[in-house]
DNA sequence: GCAAGGTC
């Protein structure tokens, strides 16, 4: 070929900027001519060049991403033109859309006079697919074209010259995989979207979506699993039962500093057990150092950067949204500062010239010196970065491709930072406690990677066998908390882990949730599903279909990979996938009632019968007495169990779980005559007969306001439908605290300090059953006769002491529980009903028997101990307080002032 | 009016 006449070569890039870069690099900016094409964005560059000795007249132009779109044939385009199920088989075709026709014409025009076509599309599956679109357009007008593919990963001279001198063939398998993906996405998306939109849009008043004429309840194999992540986390939070736990903390002031030792048992959920162990420690409180360990630890630098990690780190360190990050990265790529920013790869190949990359950085004023040290063989600092195990075989990890003196926050090659951790273990009465401190010995890569911190903390010196008396020894309590709502970084992690979307599209799917009114994002970038989003997921979940789970996409992705590797044929994958999805579609349509039911939980039927105008029928039960800001509504969780929850969730977490034996429940327009503050709407319950005792009527018109003994009894007998939290469970369960404590607020008296099971008002003040069969006595206000509630004092002098308070707002009656006990002969309901485990524990302690007892203080037989112990078996008196109002009697998750 | 994926 060498020495022949010049040939004309048409080079096509994926976007105009790449065409320009390729042309500039190959022409070395000598004799480069530019002319307009038919599309105003896609210029044509011309210059002379020699490929392996063959002189070429090079034309370089571009497309803008995909040139073609897949669409249904005309007669299936209109929404009502066919049954949506037909979309699984309806003929489809690939067409150049109208707005790409100019580009198509330019390609045709230039291809007619060329001998070669060189494809400079991005080196990934989509790029390969676009390459075949370009081939189709060009070969239609010139079937003699010689087709070549250029493989490059960065717009730098070395890569571009190397690519053009080593042209290869395009990979049809890659393109086939994308064809299959496109067809499956189109058929599933269109069929399900039309189905659920036409089914639900007009059937309900979907108030959250504004102008509902344009509402589309879309379904997509990426957007729905993304919504699924949001809803699943929301459900997890909603079903979390706050659970109290106890732990022993020990501190020691040695004179050289204070060490805080934590209990190696961690948190105990059994109060009695914790008290017994605490008591042992207090009685035999000398601590013995049993182990002092000093260990060198290493903190490794992060793996080389891929797109998701770039987005997550930018979100974490710079609070940049994923969308903005990719925009900036694209700019840097186009300016030649970094390699291609859309890559899954997080390990460098052997071919990458890492030394060359670092050499470029030697002049940098911040990390230049570090780069020089890395390159100095005498320093012994060089280490090839360890990979994260991902390689898309198309692009290297994102790395700098040329020097910049400006602020750029990444480095490539790092040594781990070195630290020394000292761990001290002590033994008190057989219980182990430990503490640790860290000293950083060598910062190494942390010197240049300034975003990661590795704090040091010092502790005094201890020797094995040494004994000391703890300065404080406290039994502290806490409450398990639900996980937070998903943040944008969390969501990206979920999507990445499950393979939802591509690096370039993940942020689009997240945005789609907002656009479709499926979810909202708050100021902290945390996502909450809307009623609409939750209802749709719930509907499919109730059908038993995991269409909102990532499995379907994962399966498809797996199949696509097989196609791209030539292991499976496109046609067979398409046939199997679509067959499965079609039967799933038919099943979903058969079970559409589930979708209706789920929507009914949240929305009124649009042709509904109206009902009581004062409240939304079928929903509102009462005003939330906790936040006093939102309504409490009857809802079902995803397991079908009923609860009455505050609409202010997640800011307000007030929830009343109802018996697990309910088959059906509906809020009526009847108001309770006795519960205040009203109105409290009665709920018509239908219980599953086999799950309740025979003497109860399965049909019951009940009230959650506090007056309904039958409801309380069935709750106790049947338990609630609240999901048991997976976290923080699994220790012993002998204590009553581990009973049915799903409510943040007691069902019966709306107090925060006990569960409905322990509610004194049910014994003391129940209207319908003043005297229970057990013979326990009640207590009513001696002024007005209204039933009293039992509360816990929080004043300095009486912290933890219980008192009765009249419920009537006009009456100021008040009496200490312990003084009432003595009047009533010490057999009060309150005494027997509250915290029985604590009572048992406190029996070891002479003194008032008020629930949890009062613990061990100075002067209670502990005189041999010189240190001051904080009494701890009463109400929580550690430094932990509600961070909202500072009250130590509760935590912020149940704070009545929250959101005030 | 529908998907996801390129890109402007």
UniProtKB/TrEMBL annotation:
GO molecular function list: DNA binding; DNA topoisomerase type I (single strand cut, ATP-independent) activity; zinc ion binding
EC number: 5.6.2.1
SMART domains tied to this protein: TOP1Ac, TOP1Bc, TOPRIM, ZnF_C2HC
Domain Toprim: start-end pairs: 8-153
Start-end of Gly residues biased regions: 850-862
GO terms classed as biological process: DNA recombination; DNA repair; DNA topological change
Reactions catalysed, as given in the entry: ATP-independent breakage of single-stranded DNA, followed by passage and rejoining
Cofactor: Mg(2+)
Coiled-coil intervals: none
Gene Ontology cellular component annotations, sorted alphabetically: nucleus; RecQ family helicase-topoisomerase III complex
Domain Topo IA-type catalytic: 171-586
Occurrences of domain GRF-type (ranges): 781-820
Signal sequence region: none
Domain CCHC-type: 880-897
Biased composition (Low complexity): 827-849
Record has Zinc as a keyword: yes
Keywords, ordered alphabetically: DNA-binding, Isomerase, Magnesium, Metal-binding, Topoisomerase, Zinc, Zinc-finger
Pfam families to which the protein is assigned, alphabetical: Topoisom_bac, Toprim, Zn_ribbon_GRF
Region (Disordered): 825-862
Enzyme class: isomerase
Gene3D superfamilies according to UniProt: 3.40.50.140, Topoisomerase I, domain 2, Topoisomerase I, domain 3, Topoisomerase I, domain 4
Role this protein plays: Introduces a single-strand break via transesterification at a target site in duplex DNA. Releases the supercoiling and torsional tension of DNA introduced during the DNA replication and transcription by transiently cleaving and rejoining one strand of the DNA duplex. The scissile phosphodiester is attacked by the catalytic tyrosine of the enzyme, resulting in the formation of a DNA-(5'-phosphotyrosyl)-enzyme intermediate and the expulsion of a 3'-OH DNA strand.
Family recorded in the similarity comment: Belongs to the type IA topoisomerase family.
Protein's UniProt name: DNA topoisomerase
Lineage, opening ranks: Eukaryota, Viridiplantae, Streptophyta, Embryophyta, Tracheophyta
């Amino acid at each position: 070929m060498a020495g022949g006449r010049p040939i004309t070569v048409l080079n096509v890039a994926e976007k105009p900027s790449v065409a320009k870069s390729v042309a500039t690099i190959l022409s070395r900016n000598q004799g480069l001519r530019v002319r307009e094409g038919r599309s105003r964005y896609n210029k044509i560059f011309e210059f002379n060049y020699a490929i392996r000795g063959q002189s070429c007249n090079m034309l370089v132009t571009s497309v803008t991403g995909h040139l073609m779109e897949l669409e249904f044939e005309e007669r299936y385009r209109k929404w009502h033109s066919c049954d949506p199920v037909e979309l699984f088989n309806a003929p489809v075709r690939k067409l150049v859309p109208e707005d790409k026709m100019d580009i198509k014409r330019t390609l045709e025009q230039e291809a007619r006079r060329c001998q070669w076509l060189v494809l400079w599309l991005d080196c990934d599956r989509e790029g390969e697919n676009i390459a075949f679109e370009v081939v189709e357009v060009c070969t239609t007008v010139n079937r003699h074209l010689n087709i070549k593919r250029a493989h490059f990963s960065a717009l730098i001279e070395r890569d571009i010259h190397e690519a053009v001198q080593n042209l290869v063939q395009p990979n049809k398998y890659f393109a086939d995989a994308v064809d299959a993906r496109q067809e499956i996405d189109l058929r599933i998306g269109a069929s399900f979207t039309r189905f659920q939109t036409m089914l639900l849009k007009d059937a309900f008043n979907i108030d959250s979506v504004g102008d509902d004429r344009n509402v589309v309840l879309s379904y997509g194999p990426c957007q729905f699993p993304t919504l699924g992540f949001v809803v699943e986390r929301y459900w997890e939070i909603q079903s979390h039962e706050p659970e109290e736990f106890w732990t022993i903390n020990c501190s020691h002031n040695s004179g050289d500093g204070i060490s805080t030792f934590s209990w190696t048992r961690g948190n105990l959920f059994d109060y009695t057990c914790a008290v017994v162990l605490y008591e042992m420690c207090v009685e035999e409180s000398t601590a013995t150092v049993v182990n002092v360990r000093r260990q060198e630890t290493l903190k490794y630098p992060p793996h080389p950067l891929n797109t998701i990690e770039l987005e997550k780190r930018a979100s974490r360190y710079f609070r940049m949204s994923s969308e903005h990050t990719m925009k900036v990265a694209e700019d840097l790529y186009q300016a030649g500062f970094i390699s291609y920013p859309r890559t899954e790869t997080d390990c460098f190949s052997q071919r990458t010239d890492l030394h060359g990359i670092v050499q470029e950085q030697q002049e940098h004023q911040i990390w230049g010196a570090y780069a020089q040290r890395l390159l100095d063989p005498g320093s012994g600092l060089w280490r090839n970065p360890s990979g994260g195990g991902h390689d898309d075989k198309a692009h290297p990890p994102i790395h700098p491709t040329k020097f910049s003196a400006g602020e750029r926050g990444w480095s490539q090659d790092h040594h781990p930072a070195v630290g020394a951790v000292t761990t001290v273990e002590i033994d008190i009465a057989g219980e182990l406690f430990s503490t640790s401190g860290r000293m950083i010995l060598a910062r190494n890569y942390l010197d240049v990677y300034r975003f990661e911190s590795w704090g040091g903390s010092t502790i005094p010196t201890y020797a094995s066998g040494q004994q000391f008396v703890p300065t404080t020894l406290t039994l502290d309590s806490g409450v398990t908390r639900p996980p937070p709502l998903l943040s944008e970084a969390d969501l990206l992690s979920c999507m990445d882990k499950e393979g939802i979307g591509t690096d370039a599209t993940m942020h689009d799917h997240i945005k789609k949730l907002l656009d479709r009114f499926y979810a909202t994002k708050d100021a902290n970038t945390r996502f909450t599903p809307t009623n609409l989003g939750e209802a749709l997921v719930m509907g499919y979940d109730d059908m038993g279909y995991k269409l909102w789970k990532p499995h379907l996409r994962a399966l498809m992705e797996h199949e696509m990979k097989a196609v791209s590797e030539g292991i499976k044929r496109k046609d067979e994958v398409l046939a199997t996938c679509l067959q499965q999805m079609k039967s799933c579609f038919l099943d979903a349509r058969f079970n559409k009632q589930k979708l209706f039911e789920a929507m009914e939980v949240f929305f009124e039927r649009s042709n509904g019968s109206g009902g009581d105008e004062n409240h939304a029928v079928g929903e509102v039960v009462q005003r939330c007495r906790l936040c006093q800001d939102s309504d409490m509504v009857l809802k079902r969780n995803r397991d079908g169990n009923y609860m009455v929850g505050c609409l202010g969730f997640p800011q307000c977490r007030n929830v009343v779980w109802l018996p697990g034996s309910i088959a059906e429940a509906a809020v009526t327009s009847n108001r309770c005559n006795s519960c205040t503050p009203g109105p409290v709407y009665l709920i018509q319950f239908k219980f599953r007969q086999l799950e309740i005792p025979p003497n109860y009527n399965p049909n019951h018109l009940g009230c959650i306001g506090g007056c309904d003994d039958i409801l309380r009894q069935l709750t106790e007998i049947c338990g609630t439908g609240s999901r048991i939290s997976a976290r923080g469970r699994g220790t012993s369960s002998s204590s009553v605290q581990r009973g049915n404590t799903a409510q943040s607020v007691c069902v019966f008296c709306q107090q925060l300090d006990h569960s409905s099971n322990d509610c004194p008002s049910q014994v003391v003040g129940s209207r319908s059953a003043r005297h229970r069969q057990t013979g326990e006595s009640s207590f009513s206000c001696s002024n007005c006769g209204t039933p009293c509630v039992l509360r816990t004092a929080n004043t300095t002098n009486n912290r933890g002491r219980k008192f009765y308070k009249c419920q009537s707002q006009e009456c100021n009656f008040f009496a200490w529980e312990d003084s009432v006990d003595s009047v009533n002969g010490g057999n009060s309901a309150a005494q027997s009903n509250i915290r029985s485990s604590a009572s048992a524990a406190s029996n070891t302690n002479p003194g008032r028997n008020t629930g949890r007892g009062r613990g061990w203080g100075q002067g209670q037989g502990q005189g041999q101990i010189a240190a001051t112990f904080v009494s701890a078996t009463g109400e929580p008196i550690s430094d932990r307080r509600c961070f909202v109002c500072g009250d130590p009697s509760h935590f912020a998750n149940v704070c009545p002032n929250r959101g005030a």
